[in-house]
Amino acid sequence: MAKKSVASLQTGSKRLTKAIKMVKSPKTGAYTFVESIMAPDAVNDFFKKK
């Protein structure tokens, strides 16, 4: 599974990170990308979750 933290975004006083992970579909075997914008401290939990 590939994972990458793409960008650090800053809006006002909030600091955000956009994370993209590649997930393999159990049904078809094809890979899809899941994107999420979150706080920097939540990135590791995002990558550990399946």
UniProtKB/TrEMBL annotation:
- Domain of life assignment: Bacteria
* InterPro entries named in the record: DUF4295
* Name of the protein in question: DUF4295 domain-containing protein
From what organism does this protein derive? Answer: Aquimarina litoralis
